[in-house]
Amino acid sequence: MAAPAAVSPRPPWEVRLAAGIGLRHPHVAQLIEEPPADLAWVEVHTENYLVDGGPRLRQLELIAERYALSFHGVGLSLGSADEPDRAHLARIRRLCDRFGPGLVSEHIAWSVEGGHYLNDLFPIPYTEEALATVARNIRIAQDALGRRIMVENPSSYLRFLDSTMAECRFVAELAARADCDLLLDVNNIHVSAHNHGFAVDDYLAAIPSERVGELHLAGHARVLADGAVLLIDDHASAVIPAVWALYERTLARVGPRPTLLEWDNDIPPLEVLLAERSQAQAWLDRVAVHARAA
Fold first, then answer.
1. pTM across the whole model
2. Which residue in 32, 22, 88, 21 sits closest to 55, CA to CA?
3. What H or E segment, with its residue span, contains residue 32?
4. What is the pLDDT of residue 10?
5. Which of 23, 165, 231, 280 is least enclosed by beta carbons within 10 angstroms?
């Protein structure tokens, strides 16, 4: 097979202050052939496009002609004790240079052990040692990518006995030490607050608003575990009223930010996801109007 043609880096497309959706395979053809007039941007999972060519990359090229892009990674394993894989970072850099995403983000989690990639995002303890390690890994990633990235607060279902600080303090301190931005997942805050019993307002108060570059909204599941209700961040349903209410409080706290509607499992027709997006856009528009009037 012939080597891929060299591609000049594309200037980053600005992700407008608007609500977007995650790009999922069942919707790709429709989004290419029938672009919704009010959809400004989409978010893709970075690792799905780390290829040199072929139909998947061609589809992304057609998407990029119609919408601004956000790249959301799941494979850097920033919470690992080992440094991020340099070859993996180089592949992401080439993809970013080719498509010029307006936003690039990753997770505060680990998923690699001894060179083996695990199909999940595992939690880390909130300790000084973990803080130093993750901050180091973020700085390495940003240097390799030549840009600031955002890191996403996790959803969690257990707490480590050796944690010495609250998650919100860990996240805020991490952004300062690594000099990175934050992707604030509103659903994750709701899920973790329910599972661990902390106050969402205390969480929001600890987050530096100037570091927040994007917000996420999603659905979650309720399961019974030892007689108690546990919330699971499964991205398989509509956003519930309590999360919409927390979104409103988040916007009041940090101001309007690009907002993504995530729906990764039991994916509905595109029209359902676009209706959710419109609801988020309505909140953004109201906050923007109030901000201009203030």
1. 0.92
2. 32
3. helix 25-33
4. 55
5. 165
